[in-house]
Design goal:
With about 120 residues, this protein is mostly beta strands. The two termini are about 15 Å apart.
Length: about 120
């Protein structure tokens, strides 16, 4: 099925953010996962180490990315790439929500600071 309708999306919430999953195996994607992340104002997500490369495209707002210790605040139209094995954190220190489109390979997992592993359903 090459087309994904908004009615086929699944919404997940974690660490105060909302992830709307569009591309995943359940919608016909074998290799890629893609989702829209809504990051509320004042959100500071925990740093985590990612298993697969992730690409980010800022749709709105001014989220702050930290990738392996390098930090930047990005605006609408900006993009970032976090390599596989990098430590990633994402914050929204502004007073407005931010929206980001994220793409990675199916099978992504993240190792959290306490050593636990998160396998996000929106990427699997």
């Amino acid at each position: 099925m090459p087309f994904v309708r908004s009615t086929e999306t699944v919404v997940h919430e974690i660490h105060g953010a909302r992830f709307t999953s569009y591309l995943r195996p359940a919608t016909g994607s074998g290799d890629l996962a893609g989702w829209r992340a809504e990051i509320p104002a004042g959100t500071v997500a925990p740093a985590h180490v990612i298993s697969h490369e992730e690409a980010f495209y800022v749709l709105s707002g001014r989220p702050q990315f930290s990738i392996d210790g390098e930090t930047a605040e990005l605006g609408a139209g900006d993009a970032a790439v976090a390599p596989a094995g990098s430590e990633l954190s994402l914050s929204n220190l502004t007073d407005r929500s931010a929206e980001i489109w994220v793409t990675t390979r199916v099978g992504l997992n993240a190792t959290l600071p306490d050593g636990s592993t998160l396998t996000p359903p929106w990427a699997n």
